[in-house]
Amino acid sequence: MFELYVATLASIFSIVNPLGAVPVYLAMTPTYSQKERNKTSRMTSIYFFLILCLFFLAGTWILSFFGISIGAMRIAGGLVIMSSGYTLLTGSITNSGATSKKVTEEALHKEDISFAPLAMPLLSGPGSISLLITYFDDYPLWWQKGIIVSVIFTMGIIVYLILRFAPLLYQFLGEAGLRALSRIMGFIVMSIGVQFIIGGISKVF
Fold first, then answer.
1. What is the model's pTM?
2. Which residue segment(s) compose the domain that 115 sits in?
3. For residue 77, is it within any domain?
4. How do residues 167-197 score in pLDDT, each as one tens digit?
């Protein structure tokens, strides 16, 4: 039970990579007061939890509705996760579609950025969603699904704390430190993506 919790938390944390979102978050909130940042951090973590729980619990039904097999989902998800890992590995997260210059400029003029683009797609993107949908199929027992929901809740708390103390983390780690951590995460995420593709091919054939 504990091993499932730790393994799932490590996988989701690597793919979500909330530390990599710190410079993006700060770039989108330069004029925010501490109170406004606290509220944004809190709402982002709530939306993050709800989005991932929704796709985890209803993901297989969505796949069935569109006639997509879990094997195909594994392969597609593996490719997305590998792409995310490569982005982290090359240190180009700030140039990705979810955090492009245009998205950042739009966020500066929005009253609330907690749902979009922070919670989705920056934190709860295709990689983490595909991972959780396949986990729903991999762990059929309800106590296992309960553990995974508790992991999502834990990740929500982690996201809140990291965004809440983003200025301090950025000051402590600096741009170089955050990029180094993102590259390490990128290698792990790419490995998860490869494993997903192998699992998907095995499932299909």
1. 0.88
2. 31-204
3. yes
4. 999 999 888 888 888 888 889 999 999 999 9
